[in-house]
């Protein structure tokens, strides 16, 4: 069981003792966001705030308390939507840095640099431009699969799980959008964990999976950009291997809740079982995500809306049902090396809800 974590067994911390979270779960919500209008969009995932401006939060005397409470809210609700943000990409970057730090990311984790980000790119290494125009030219949406499928659900993924130290939070602001279409969907990894029988859950808790983005090598060749082989936001994320082994079930260090952590985009193999068994298990887990619309939330963007999600315990999927231009800015921070704390609980268990 290489992924079970105890304080005194650093080797079990995904093998990366220097990529542990700095705080112990759960972080407590202090009430600083109670003054804002908020609405939960479904019982299990997604909360929308009206009238909350991140640029103002950055200037507030209670800045750190507000940001820590936002981290708790994002990690608890999976994804938070903030309408009509007046914020620059540089302010997004500053906010992302504070969010990840206040949520307890390891010292060694910073903002991610995507392996396909061009050296000297428009807004700096740590901001990805999500662009339908670039995508048409074969670039853009570089964190996603480029395989073409007739299933819209083929794109469900969690960001950069091929890195040994993957993402805690990511944020996307869409500033140019089609008249209709281009919605994004998120699904809750906590809720999918809660759909497993106790027997299946404890079986999966003993397993790891291999995540792999070697297809980015082809993409890099096609685009004519060399792959970024240097440090990509953590000293543990470097080189051109683009593969990592993570626990199938991980604990979110902010909530202390268990989540399923395999995704259609990058997870290729469950280890320690036969290839056939792995295929069946992965297909079953992916179906749980795509076929349970009551574990999902679908967001209809308006101009300058921003979404911030916790990549440790959600998946998301873009919708390519439009022909016009759709463009936005995205920042992705790195958290801890994924681990499973055997003492952690499921979301429903922690909230005293019936599984
Ligand atoms: O374009 C979208 O709706 C989502 C893109 C995405 O997967 C991301 O920003 O991580
Ligand atoms: Fe993504």
TrEMBL record:
GO CC terms: cytoplasm
Keyword Iron-sulfur (UniProt): no
Region of interest called Disordered, as start-end residue ranges on this chain: 1-23
CC cofactor: Fe(2+)
Record keywords, A-Z: Dioxygenase, Iron, Metal-binding, Oxidoreductase
Coiled-coil intervals, chain numbering: none
Example GO molecular function: metal ion binding
The keyword Metal-binding is assigned to this record: yes
Family: Belongs to the TfdA dioxygenase family.
Protein name: TauD/TfdA-like domain-containing protein
Source organism of the structure: Aspergillus mulundensis
């Amino acid at each position: 069981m290489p992924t079970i974590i105890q304080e005194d067994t650093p080797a079990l911390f995904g093998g990366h003792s220097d990529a542990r979270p700095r705080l112990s779960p759960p972080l407590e919500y202090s009430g600083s966001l109670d003054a804002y209008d908020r609405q939960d969009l479904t019982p299990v995932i997604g909360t929308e705030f009206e009238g909350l401006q991140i640029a103002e939060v950055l200037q507030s005397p209670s800045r750190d308390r507000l940001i820590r409470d936002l981290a708790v809210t994002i990690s608890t609700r999976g994804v938070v939507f903030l309408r009509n943000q007046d914020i620059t990409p540089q302010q997004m970057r500053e906010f992302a840095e504070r969010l990840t730090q206040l949520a307890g990311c390891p010292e060694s984790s910073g903002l991610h640099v995507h392996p396909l980000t061009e050296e000297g790119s428009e807004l700096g290494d740590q901001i990805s431009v999500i662009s339908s125009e670039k995508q048409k030219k074969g670039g853009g949406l570089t964190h996603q699969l480029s395989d073409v499928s007739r299933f819209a659900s083929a794109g469900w993924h969690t960001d950069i799980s091929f890195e040994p130290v993957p993402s805690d939070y990511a944020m996307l602001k869409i500033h140019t959008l089609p008249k209709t279409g281009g919605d994004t969907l998120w699904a809750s990894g906590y809720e999918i964990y809660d759909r497993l029988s106790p027997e299946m859950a404890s079986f999966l808790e003993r397993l790891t999976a291999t995540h792999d983005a070697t297809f980015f090598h082809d993409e890099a060749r096609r685009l004519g950009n060399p792959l970024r082989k240097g440090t990509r936001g953590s000293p543990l994320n470097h080189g051109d291997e683009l593969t990592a082994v993570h626990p199938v079930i991980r604990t979110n260090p902010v909530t202390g809740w268990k989540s399923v952590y395999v995704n259609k985009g990058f997870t290729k193999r469950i280890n320690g079982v036969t290839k056939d068994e792995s295929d069946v298990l992965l297909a079953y887990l992916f179906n749980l995500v795509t076929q349970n619309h009551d574990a999902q939330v679908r967001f209809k963007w308006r101009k300058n809306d921003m979404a911030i999600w916790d990549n440790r315990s959600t998946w998301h999927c873009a919708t390519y049902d439009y022909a016009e231009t759709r463009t936005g800015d995205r920042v992705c921070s790195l958290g801890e090396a994924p681990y499973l704390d055997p003492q952690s609980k499921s979301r429903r268990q922690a909230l005293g809800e019936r599984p």
